[in-house]
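Following up on my earlier thread - several people asked me to post the actual chain instead of describing it. Fair enough. Here it is, all 223 residues.
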Amino acid sequence: MASNPSVFLLMLSGQIECADFPEFDNIYFKYNFVFGQDWVITSGLEEGVSQVSKKSQDGRQTFVWNFPLEVTFKSTNPFGWPQLVLSCYGQDVFGTAVVRGYGAVHVPISPGKHVRIIPMFVPESSSRFQKFTSWFMGRKPEYVDANIVARGEGREVTRVRSQGNIRVTFNIVTRDMKKLGYDVHPSSLSIPSAATASAMAGSSAPGAAAAALPTANVAKEAR
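Reply from S.P.:
Thanks for posting it. Predicted structure:
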């Protein structure tokens, strides 16, 4: 007899396909996965760096990488589900590498093919003086640790500005999740239909009518 599994597997393949940064050219990105303490990578790469891409010459002005992703995780529980963190860089007029955008997205939980458009953003200077200083020195604000975009701590005190987006394709395969009590398959998830919602709304009507009875009795007594 086969023993009950103690871990489940999450297998990911896909591509970081393209990006839209209308104001810039010659952009590359770094990627890495952020995950909880119970998660372990069994195969594949946790981080990587892409090639430099030039803006397309057509009307779309798109940066195309088609950079492959392939990694397999194992874990005992879904807490700390993996996130993909992206950091895009380019060169300024002085030839210095500066950040063009940060972004993060959770790896999809359900098996199948998924497409995600990741909004990118950059940190802003907290004052006009710091903004002038960063422009004069050619050093724009950036995070010391890019993984902060995958966490909530300290984000409320950070001023950011939206800047571009990246398209990522995920192909997800899971194993032994249902045996451990986690059902993430789309066909087996129960989604309330419009009829169910109407029935639920109708079931609350008698309570509302009962609540209105004291008001009606008070009106009769007043007459």
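Confidence is low (pLDDT under 50) at residues 204-223. That should answer part of your original question.
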